Amino acid sequence: MKTNRLFLALAFVAVLGGSSAFAQNTDGENNKPADKQRKRPTPEQMMEFQTKRMEQSLMLDDKTAAKFTPLYKEYLEAMKESRALPKNAKDAKEAKKKERTDEDIMKALEDRMDRQQKMLDTKKKYFNEFKKILTPRQLEKVFAPRPEGFRKAPGKPRAGKRADARPCPLCPPCHEINRHHAVCPPCQK
Predict the structure, then answer these.
(1) Which 3 state secondary structure label does DSSP give 86?
(2) Assuming Cys at both sites, which of 4, 100, 146, 179 could form a disulfide with 104, CB separation 3.0 to 4.6 Å?
């Protein structure tokens, strides 16, 4: 009987003590979880991170890095400006909700092509500048196209896709990716 009471008391203490392990780590001033309080970096900080990452990727020496850094920041700024949507982009988003006319569609296509041409012109201009200080392999890294999921958070699967999605081994390469089973249902038959 005493052992039952002792066992029950120990179990009770373990449950109460263990429940504190699941408490959220909060900051005292506004009781938000600590993870939620992280501030987003400013565009300048993002440009700085991107520049540092590219310097490390290219494995530049100090002399080359001193020439590369200001030029790369200038390049990023120019690309940002050439990618920018026109000032009437809000109107275009609202127009997408409504029925668009042929003129609206043509204007949107022409605007997109103009932006793409500006980006291409910017890349060509800075390619000639970077060519003076970088090797061809380094140039390839600077001007390589971005991966498809570049803007998504690293380590997280994109919305609507599982991280372990693989093509069915029995299907031809053009078959849709199977997200749920090792072998897709048409191949199971």
Answers:
(1) coil
(2) 100
Q: Tell me which residue of 131, 134, 117 sits closest to 58, measured CA to CA.
A: 134
DSSP state at residue 107: H
d(CA 133, CA 58): 12
Asked whether the CA dihedral 21, 27, 29, 33 is positive or negative, the reply is negative
Rounded CA-CA distance 130/65 in Å is 12
Q: State the Cα–Cα distance between residues 60 and 139, nearest whole angstrom.
A: 12
Q: Give pLDDT tens digits for 80-119.
A: 888 887 666 666 566 566 788 888 889 989 999 999 999 9
Q: Which residue has the tokens 């932006």?
A: 115
User: Which residues, in sequence order, are CB contacts of 121 under 8 Å at separation 6+?
Assistant: 82
**Of 125, 114, 120, which is closest to residue 86 (Cα–Cα)?**
114
Report how far residue 77's alpha carbon sits from residue 111's, in angstroms, rounded to the nearest whole number: 20
What is the chain's mean pLDDT, rounded?
74
Distance CA 45, CA 48 (A): 5
Structure tokens at 68: 């590369």
DSSP designation for 144: P
Residue 68, Cβ density class (10 Å: 0-12 exposed, 13-18 middle, ≥19 buried): buried
Identify the H or E element spanning 117.
helix 102-130
